[in-house]
Amino acid sequence: MEENKSSVIKSAMSYGLLLGIFWLFKYVFFILGYTISSNYLLFYQALAPVTLILAYIFTRRYRMDIGGRIQFFHAWQFGILLYTFAGIILSLEQFIFYRFLAPSDFIANSLQATLEMLEGTNLSPKMAETITRMEVPTPISMAIMGILNNTFYGIIFSIPVAALLCRNNATGQIDENNHLENE
Known about the structure:
mainly alpha
């Protein structure tokens, strides 16, 4: 099957917008977690797994959009782009949060809390010193790191999604009609 790169990007942008809107909604619980800590539980444990389900659904829908057949690396590429475009949408909300809503020392305090937590895990003195000398990230750098983190998550979490969509065919392709006939 010939891969149409503009189709991959266009579809990843469309589905990434939908995933990004979900992440915007989800991130509100992260923001509210500073005043009501039970929102952290909802953010991390209830809504985070929904991202994996949505990524699977969007990748499966994309497979149907291109004719019902997809190769593993094609599905993986779509998943990475999906997470990247959703991360770009989310970065706008992250920037607004870190720049205008969070206290001015929020990032520095979070970095210090992380250092204190790491010191309890037998962190080497050299590593602790390196962390304490780090510059405090700016809101824009936090937003950019968010995009990069989400792209990295896309690289990792798109592997099982792509594998699930290609699991029953030795060539790495699956056709929904053939899948049903082979069962």
